[in-house]
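As a warm-up, study this chain.
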Amino acid sequence: MSGNGNTALDGLGKAISLSPLDPFLYAMFSARGIAHFHLDEMDDAAHWAEQGARTPGAHYLISAFAAAINEAAGNQDKAQYWARETRARRKDASIESFFTAFPVRNPAKRVELHNSLSRLGFPEQGQT
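Now compare it with the structure written out below.
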């Protein structure tokens, strides 16, 4: 979340190799996606975001991340798929809940994700 993609990728590689059956593996895969996103490596970012979203135990915000990254990467069909998956799991998914879970510090990257989520139809705040 801090924007230091190279350091994150080094640490994530080590963590995954030490615990390949970790119940939070989805988070490590998604974190790889975030790291690649910060490095503007959008194909890799989309790949790892989707890996995270497909991994057992992944929560709805992981699929929202896959939607946002694919939208930012220009993969509209995949972005729409993951947005539908997110809404199917949580109808109240919102941009606010996304950034509460993923406090992206880099202002430009935060705006990029915000705009992607907005274009995919996610509201600013969840409906109760």
